[in-house]
Amino acid sequence: MTRRTLIRGGLVVTASDEIHADVLIEDGRIAALAASGTPAAEAFTAERVIDATGKYVIPGGVDAHTHMELPFGGTFASDTFETGTRAAAWGGTTTIVDFAVQSVGHTLREGLDTWHAKAEGNCAIDYAFHMIVSDVNQETLKEMDLLIEEGVTSFKQFMAYPGVFYSDDGQILRAMQRSAENGGLIMMHAENGIAIDVLVEQALARGETDPHYHGEVRKALLEAEATHRAIRLAQVAGAPLYVVHVSAMEAVAELARARDEGLNVFGETCPQYLFLSTDNLAEPDFEGAKYVCSTPLRPKEHQARLWQGLRTNDLQVVSTDHCPFCFTGQKELGRGDFSKIPNGLPGVENRMDLLHQAVVDGHISRRRWIEIACATPARMFGLYPKKGTIAPGADADIVIYDPHAEQVMSAETHHMNVDYSAYEGKRTTGRVETVLSRGEPVIDQRRFAGRTGHGLFTPRSTCQYLN
């Protein structure tokens, strides 16, 4: 039986267009659009009609960087796939791309199977996976080809965290050479972890144990150096490169230079680097531990360069790197030793609203908001036009967004499974009202209407920005 939903009277905003249009949904996909008030729109009929007058009708957000249930520092990220995807939906995100982890000594397949088991049947919205490659060897390289055939088409490596996720330059080069052949995309955590470990050891020896030292030892220059090195290794390999969670102006400069040279190099930043700073890391009474993530928060002067990068397209994507740890019992593991504070911030629920606030504040345009939060991540990771836009044939992942509603971000009202908000008390304009995932309501007039298990694993094609 055909099921139809009609969204009437809203301003449809995509990365390329803004038009007052009615949207007809049939069997979970967008069937048609027509300008509101035209004969074509008047001819639309449906069992369910949503009045979006005065609201935006936007594609569901695509958050291409989350870590649900990630093991880290002797504990686990506090959001499960169930709680994390529900919170994502509350924030207007309808697809996440999470990271499956290969442990050293194990295969990619074992890591991927483990993450499938965590997610399957537990998600409120659709999901996909990247693969963290921690152990590059001949078998791993062969497995990369097989994963691409299964729709896991991007592979993350770390220049940081020696002894955990770290890959040396030779391992990185081999994986990049493989991706140059098989069409995969290497994602890089670009920080010089070997040098950082020296600075950590020296800081602790001096008795510098508070959270703000986390930011001081993970120096912006060591992010820029690693970014430069990753770019040149990718150039040698003839491979594309996507640098995750760019936080420093010096790293943006490296990306801009590479792109000016015509290299297939891409950059992502996160809301925490756009809205928070080392001032948060320095909050007294160990409160700064709430803001410990890597790459770290930077001094406020870096924010302007990140916004500029988003406007000039030197940075293309805003993801969250959502990796929450509760303050009580988890972040507190690092009392007396900042290096033991689990690295990560909650944010999957806040991204779309914070970026809309950036529209209100004049940092970016409405269409750029949708581009960096929906369309580009979908294209970057092989999900477009199924995800990331409102067009006939696309999945009906749609958000009715009230651009005038005001809210105050708080742990008391958010839906993430974490005991603090990184944006506690921040006032923002704009709020999600209704969310559809493949035409099914997940949030309905500010009420949760979804169900665990609705979300499906979504295989991806390769990066759509490459020739």
Summarize the structure.
31% of the residues lie in helices and 23% in strands. The protein has 467 residues and is an alpha/beta fold.
Average of the residue pLDDT scores: 97
The helical percent reads 25-40%
**Number of continuous helical runs:** 14
Gyration radius, in Å: 21 Å
> How much of the sequence is in beta strands?
15-25%
- Compute the separation of the termini in Å: 41 Å
Number of beta-strand segments: 19
Please describe the biggest sheet, giving its number of strands, its sense, and whether it closes into a barrel: 9 strands, mixed
Spans of at least 5 consecutive residues whose pLDDT stays below 50 are: none
Q: Structural class of the secondary structure composition? A: alpha/beta
What best-fitting shape do the alpha-carbon axes yield?
A: globular
Structure description:
The structure is a single chain. With 467 residues, this protein is of the alpha/beta class. Helix content is 31%, strand content 23%. The strands form 3 sheets. Strands 1, 2, 3, 4, 5, 16, 17, 18 and 19 form a 9-stranded mixed sheet that branches. Strand 7 and strand 8 form a beta hairpin. Helix 5 crosses helix 8. The longest helix is centred in the middle third of the chain and has 18 residues. It is globular and about 70 Å long. The mean pLDDT is 97.
